[in-house]
Amino acid sequence: MKKRDRKREAQELCLRIGKKIRDIRKTKKLTVAEVAYRAGVEPQNFRKYELGKQEMRISMLMRIAEALEIKMQDLILED
User: Fold this and answer.
1) I need a labelling partner for 4 at 20 to 30 A (CA). Which of 27, 29, 37, 58 fits?
2) pTM of the model
3) What are the pLDDT digits (tens) for 64-76?
């Protein structure tokens, strides 16, 4: 796989996970600030994760899942 293809695939994954985070947050009627506080991240950084504009480490993904009271697998696995 070419470097360009890997980068595009990583961007698509970030977008998909970010959309799931946002959908779950909205379903639970939580604000960006509430989830960001629970996850221990600045709201503006959390918003970048939701929009898929910033890659996140697995440890951050775990903290966000915990903040949303879900399993990390729920964010990673495709529907």
Assistant:
1) 58
2) 0.90
3) 999 999 999 999 9
